[in-house]
Amino acid sequence: MIMQRLFQYIILFFLVQWSANAQTLTLEQAIQLALENNYDIKIAKNNLKIDERNNTIGNSGMLPIVNANITNNNTINNINLTQANGDERELEGVRNFNLNYGVGLDWTIFDGFRMFARKEQLKTLEEQGKAELKLAILTKVGDVYATYFDLVQQQLQIAALDTAIVVSKERLRTAENRYSIGKASKLEVLNAKVDLNTDISVQLKQQELLKQTKIRLNEILARDLAIEFQVTNAITIDEQLNFEELQTNIENQNPQLQAQVLAKRVAELQLKQTKANRYPNVQINTAYNFTRSESPFGFITQSYGRGFVYGFTASVPVFNGFNQNRNEKVAQLEVENAQFQLEQQKMNISAQLNSAYASFQTNLQLIKVEEANLEIARENLDITLAKFKIGTITTIEFRTAQQNYLDASVRYANAQYLAKLTEINLKELAGSLSLE
């Protein structure tokens, strides 16, 4: 058919022209660039590194604390002395010197098992950081998918507009030829020019939207916003998505659910640490010190010493103004809130899954309908164009057929894009979106 061949030529010309001016950016390349450059992913990676570095036995309070100390005190005094026999002495600039230095160790050996709960909490926070990193990656990769295929469907629309413009130019040429031999009026030529200019105007607006979307993708990829590129010209849909399989994957892989489960565990461990305040706290301490002092007056004018000091400190909480009970009740409420948030998250994700899957099934049907409509519109335009050349139909009928073809092309591209968006959303919810 004439229109089908024409459309294929337009697509080929479109791709050749773009290839001459810009390199093709594949979806895989875009994903890789996002994983390497995107700022949200970089921040999430650094947050995970912070959690990993915090997860140590020292940070949990299990290790002793060793300090080296030094104290040096000096005094200079003017002294008036009255002795027992009544003699008086006056001294100026009398200096006293006192130096202490050494190494001390303090070690909490029992704190009601708080340190063990704290260590487990640090480990849980690290796992939560991993889930949050996975969520950040899936979110940004999902943005890459959505923006990339938005560009694809926009390119398809521009190709359809290019076809419409070629047809409008052919119509104008035919009208001018008919007018020159007296078979058409000037009005037919003017109408053909107006419709051609309308098609060009729509194309310019679509090209502007395409450029804006490219800037958006460059922003997600965290690279120069002015980089010019083209994307592939096809949208493939995974029609084999299974609802039960998606639901199972969500329960096992969804990073939002995983993070919320871990948040509940963190709250439980915080409650455990709060309850540890009911138990005794035992610390051992030891040190090795050196001392030296000098004083011009007194029975001892100079002294030196060194020695080992050791002991322990134990404290037992008895009463703290009922704050312990209050703190435990608050921590218990935090655990309950975490449980409520987990249940709310499960319901929210389940609602998203059901809604997205219903949209996905509808969009698959729309693709088939719009594909059939496009074939009909293409055939209709093909016949209309042939009839218009021999003058058996009016310009209004021709423009209607042309507009129907353009609308069908746009609806078909849009149906493919919407189906792809719901597919991306479903895989993102299931934590199974490809990162390669």
Automatic annotation (TrEMBL):
Q: Which Gene3D superfamilies does this UniProt record tie to the protein?
A: Outer membrane efflux proteins (OEP)
Q: What is its main location?
A: membrane
GO MF terms, alphabetically ordered: efflux transmembrane transporter activity; porin activity
| Top-rank taxon | Bacteria
Would you tell me the Gene Ontology cellular component terms?
cell outer membrane; efflux pump complex
Record's signal peptide: 1-22
SUPFAM superfamilies (alphabetical): Outer membrane efflux proteins (OEP)
Q: Which keywords does UniProt give here?
A: Cell outer membrane, Membrane, Signal, Transmembrane, Transmembrane beta strand, Transport
Record localization: Cell outer membrane
Query: Which family, according to UniProt?
Result: Belongs to the outer membrane factor (OMF) (TC 1.B.17) family.
Could you tell me what this protein is called? TolC family protein
